[in-house]
Task: inverse folding
């Protein structure tokens, strides 16, 4: 075997090391047992005391691969301690080669393999079967050594677009804040806390500011906790974009509540004995009861954009709106409300449409408390904050991007990791942030672009 080209001067040739690892078995290599070496702690030259045989398990595509390597044992005269020579392809105290650990880590982080399935997968593909709990320890040991301050935070600050989106998600009784850059589609940071309140939010935003994250626009949902604290941290010049999806959803919910209240005013199915007493009244009640059923079966046409309705739904909507003026009013209100946030609108046109809706309701009052809620919402400051995106060419009008991060976290946590310990959850998040950096690095960053012409 010593005549094989992978050997040179009694040691393994580094150019053929992958070949030896794949096909070799019971190999002895003097490369890792030199007569003298330097003690890393004391920085002194130490002579070899003895030789130990180390058995290493490695991946292979054809058969089980076990490598046996001679390891030099040395004694330091300064500290009087024994230490072993450390090969470059294996970590201290491990029985598996370093590339086994790296592949397990990559499979879990990138391929979304579970800790349960990773054992059978490696046995099938690489003829090696590490224990599930060993894989779990490998992953969290490696992820726990990640230093976001030195690796991730300088990079994320260098590509920051000027837009900061924040949302939160609850998991296991704790709240996790996520901060993202929607233009560059990256997660900036996260913050774990026991509850969602102003103190925790201010602490998180202060941390972001220390990372040199100074946004021009802040995107969030309509939660009251986001009203004033971001401006306290980043300054009064910060513009706030309230998610239009949440605003429209709340308005459409009020429209559906108004429809529900109106439907209850219609007659229920009359009893047959009423037909003999007053046939006309019975028929009128019967028609209202049928319409009551039709409204229930087709209630969602009053919350759907007109251009997305089918022909059958349009015919039904026209029938109900023609017969009941109230339904026609709330349908027109819905269409006018959705038209405010058209991409072709300027902020000035959006305010004109808002004023038109408010004036029409004031001129022709609709006796329904839920419609009054919509008008109150349109008059509030939150409505003005939903129009911030109209001042920019590439600003998102919703917080969908950060909510996708929330859904990613919930999916990874419930169906993949199922971590319960706080340190393991943080390790999972750190590993995925580094993966994101490796994927996005090299791509040109996108910056926030104000519109050249604005109509106020």
Result:
């Amino acid at each position: 075997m010593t005549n094989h080209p992978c050997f040179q001067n009694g040691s393994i040739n580094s150019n053929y090391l992958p070949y030896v690892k794949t096909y070799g078995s019971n190999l002895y290599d003097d490369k890792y047992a030199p007569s003298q070496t330097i003690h890393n702690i004391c920085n002194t030259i130490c002579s070899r005391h003895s030789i130990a045989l180390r058995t290493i398990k490695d991946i292979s595509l054809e058969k089980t691969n076990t490598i046996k390597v001679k390891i030099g044992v040395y004694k330091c005269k300064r500290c009087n301690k024994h230490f072993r020579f450390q090969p470059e392809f294996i970590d201290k105290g491990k029985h598996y080669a370093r590339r086994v650990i790296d592949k397990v880590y990559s499979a879990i982080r990138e391929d979304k393999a579970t800790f349960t399935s990773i054992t059978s997968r490696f046995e099938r593909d690489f003829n090696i079967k590490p224990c599930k709990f060993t894989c779990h320890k490998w992953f969290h040991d490696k992820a726990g050594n990640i230093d976001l301050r030195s690796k991730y935070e300088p990079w994320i600050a260098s590509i920051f677009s000027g837009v900061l989106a924040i949302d939160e998600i609850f998991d296991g009784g704790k709240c996790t804040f996520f901060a993202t850059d929607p233009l560059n589609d990256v997660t900036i940071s996260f913050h774990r806390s026991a509850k969602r309140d102003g103190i925790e939010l201010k602490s998180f935003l202060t941390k972001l500011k220390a990372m040199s994250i100074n946004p021009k626009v802040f995107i969030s949902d309509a939660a009251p906790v986001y009203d004033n604290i971001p401006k306290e941290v980043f300054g009064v010049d910060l513009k706030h974009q309230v998610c239009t999806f949440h605003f429209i959803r709340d308005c459409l919910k009020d429209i559906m509540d108004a429809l529900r209240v109106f439907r209850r005013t219609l007659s229920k199915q009359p009893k047959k004995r009423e037909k003999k007493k007053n046939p006309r009244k019975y028929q009128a009640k019967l028609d209202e009861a049928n319409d009551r059923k039709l409204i229930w079966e087709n209630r969602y046409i009053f919350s759907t954009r007109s251009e997305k309705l089918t022909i059958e739904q349009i015919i039904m909507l026209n029938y109900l709106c023609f017969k009941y003026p109230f339904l026609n009013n709330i349908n027109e209100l819905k269409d006018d409300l959705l038209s405010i946030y058209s991409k072709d609108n300027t902020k000035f046109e959006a305010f004109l449409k808002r004023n038109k809706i408010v004036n029409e309701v004031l001129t022709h009052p609709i006796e329904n408390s839920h419609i009054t809620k919509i008008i109150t919402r349109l008059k509030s400051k939150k409505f003005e904050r939903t129009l911030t995106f109209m001042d920019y060419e590439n600003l998102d009008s919703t917080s969908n991007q950060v909510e996708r991060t929330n859904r990613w976290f919930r999916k990874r946590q419930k169906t993949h990791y199922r971590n319960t310990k706080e340190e393991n959850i943080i390790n999972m998040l750190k590993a995925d942030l580094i993966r994101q950096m490796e994927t996005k690095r090299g791509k040109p960053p996108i910056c926030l672009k104000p519109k050249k012409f604005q109509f106020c």
User: Anything to note?
Assistant: The two ends are 84 Å apart (CA to CA). The longest strand covers residues 45-58. Residues 12 and 39 are 23 Å apart (CA to CA).
